[in-house]
Amino acid sequence: MSKAKKLVYILISFLLSVMIASAIIAFSGYSPSEAYSAMISGAFGSTYNLAQTIGTSIPLIFAGLAMAAGAKTGIFNIGIEGQILMGALPAAIAGHYIKGIPAVLHIPLCILLAAVCGGLWALLAALIKNRLHISEVIITIMLNYVALYLVEYLVNYPFKSEGMIVRTEEIQESAELAVLIPHTRLNAGIIIALFLVVAFWFFFYRTKLGYELRATGSNLKAAETAGISNRKNIMISMFLSGAIAGIGGAVEVMGVQGYYISNMTTGYGFSGIAIAVMGGNEALGTLASALLFGALSAGSSSMNRTTNIPGEFITVLQALIIIFVSTPGIILAVEKIIRRKKVAA
Amino acid sequence: MGAQILTLLSGMVRVAIPISFAALAGMLSERVGIVNMGLEGIMLIGSFFGVVGSYLSGSAWIGLLFAIAAGAVTGLVLAVLTVGFKCEHVLAGLGINMFASGITVVLLQAIWNSKGKSEMVAGLGKWKLPVISQIPIIKDIIGNISPLFYLLVLCVLLLWMLLYRTPTGLRILVIGENPELAGTMGVNVYLVQYLFVIISGMLAAVGGAYLSIGDIDMFSKDMVSGRGYIALAMVILGNWKPTWVALAGLVYGFAESMQFRLQAVSIPPQLVQMLPYLFTILVLLFARRKSMAPAASGKHYYQKGE
């Protein structure tokens, strides 16, 4: 499929998903037009809303890139949800307990720590996969639950802040990422996200290692014959994927909340799957679909306020997008039927 | 002490029921070459529609039928995507899981105006079979148990007979190993795949229905919480054989019922809740290396002329 055609298919898939989601909304007794207009004004209605939309996209860019990095090597890293947590908590801890160093040191230190922790957590899944030859999906999902409860334990016991709320202590000012537009989620993390988008492209298309990872992803056997170590590549790719996810977690802590609090990143990892699928596992595509999902997500929270439709509606939409985009055959079949009708007419 | 062990064992069987149903579903689907990554979502659909059916009709058995029908439809969707349109099995399954997770909450809100829980509905209750509830020890473990336990035992028997004692079973085994060969032998591969992925959906939905109308008699958001994936792990542990796959559910059941016991002790609850998942990973690490995975599982098969 040519690039232009692929793009057209993705857009059609998206529209189809929106239509089916509308039908579901209507069936459940709500008004789809009300839902979408609430969402659109919630996402783009004002500078504040727009900033909120872009801010909401930041963790989604990381999650999407993390998923895409795995997919480039033929891996379904469904463990992003957990890897985000494994980055977020260490960043919150390093952000609070390390004191007296300037921001130019403190910020990179926290980010690096999050990347390493997220990466190692993902690497664990790669090691098990290589050893057992079973689907990484099962392993990464199990590790998600382990990470979730581990982090919950840590934030409930050893690292719980004073007071009633279950969260960590606030990070030092030197670890904070500047908020770009006050009272919104838009923070300097967007710069890190955009940098990673470029780095992602450069790594996979301009370096030898990136090329080898893609070779593993497109054909395991051919890569092996060409002297590429698939096992090694799977480990590298999982580490990178987990590291990107970990940074995403750190940015949420350092740029939005200022501490780690339970469930602050719930669902980002799963959105990342839809985002990478829709973005064709490419850097720019992932960026674009993360922005779109950011708009949907920011819009849905305002939809939630004005209508009675639950925000989980977005999950339905995401699921439909995954299904349609990854099954181009459906649209091809519809196209065939339309052509036949045209011929008949 | 003895009483405690019996409670533990009876808990083990209870916890195992949904996992074993789902694991059987996963095994059956993989036997015809389709990896059912959608187990988690199909279970959730099953637990939701079980409650809906029971709520609408007042009878939990009608609820169970609702669950089975919803599971069959979802299984059909999975089959259309993977067999019909050659969608990557993992993505099709994940799509179904996310869809299920969202749609159940949307409908929960529409029906009960709640984002978390449904109302209490009529449940399947428990069966006290005349002979079994008399035998010592056995009576303490399964003397008073959900009727779905007996359905599970029946399913294991039927699946075993189907796979090893019928011509269809032979066809399934060949399709799982080499669908091209089955095709040249004149087997309608697609038909068999569609049929058994649909049945797989029905089995998983019964497992899900156990969680709602077989246990707490209501639906709560995302109540399956990973059991579908755990079931996939149990398929590996049970080496794709019906009896062993169902028994693998018991192994998991043991771990989870240990968890309930441990919650009484003063260990932080989060660490205790982590155990079943950790246990699943460990079990996989120590599972038999020589696996009987169907060779063609997860691969796409194209009928002649496509």
Any overview of this molecule?
Chain A contains 14 helices and no strands. With 345 residues, chain A is mainly alpha-helical. The longest helix of chain A is centred in the middle third of the chain and has 30 residues, at 103-132. Chain B has 306 residues and is mainly α. Chain B has helices at 2-31, 39-57, 60-84, 89-112, 138-142, 147-165, 167-177, 179-184, 189-216, 227-237, 242-264, 269-286. Chain B starts with a helix and ends in a 20-residue tail after the last helix. Chains A and B meet through helix 5, helix 6, helix 11, helix 13 and helix 14 of A and helix 4, helix 10 and helix 12 of B.
A few lines on this structure:
Chain A contains 14 helices and no strands. Chain A is mainly alpha-helical. The model of chain B has no long low-confidence stretch (mean pLDDT 92).
Keywords:
heterodimer; A: 345 residues; ABC transporter involved in vitamin B12 uptake, BtuC; globular; B: 306 residues; mainly alpha
Give the topology:
The complex is a heterodimer of chains A (345) and B (306).
Chain A: H1 3-27, H2 32-44, H3 47-72, H4 80-97, H5 103-132, H6 136-156, H7 189-206, H8 208-218, H9 220-225, H10 230-257, H11 268-278, H12 283-306, H13 313-325, H14 328-344
Chain B: H1 2-31, H2 39-57, H3 60-84, H4 89-112, H5 138-142, H6 147-165, H7 167-177, H8 179-184, H9 189-216, H10 227-237, H11 242-264, H12 269-286
Helix pairs in contact in B: 1-6, 1-9, 1-10, 1-11, 2-3, 2-4, 2-9, 2-10, 3-4, 3-9, 6-7, 10-11, 10-12, 11-12
Based on DSSP secondary structure assignment, what is the total number of beta strands of chain B?
0
User: Largest sheet of chain A at a glance?
Assistant: none
**CATH homologous superfamily classification of chain B:** ABC transporter involved in vitamin B12 uptake, BtuC
Q: Mean pLDDT of chain A, nearest integer?
A: 92
Distance between the termini of chain A: 29 Å
Number of domains of chain A: 1
**Secondary-structure element pattern of chain A, one letter each:** HHHHHHHHHHHHHH
> What are the low-pLDDT stretches of chain A, counting only 5+ consecutive residues below 50?
none
> What oligomeric state do these chains adopt?
heterodimer
From the N-terminal CA to the C-terminal CA of chain B, the straight-line distance is 64 Å
- The helical percent of chain B reads over 70%
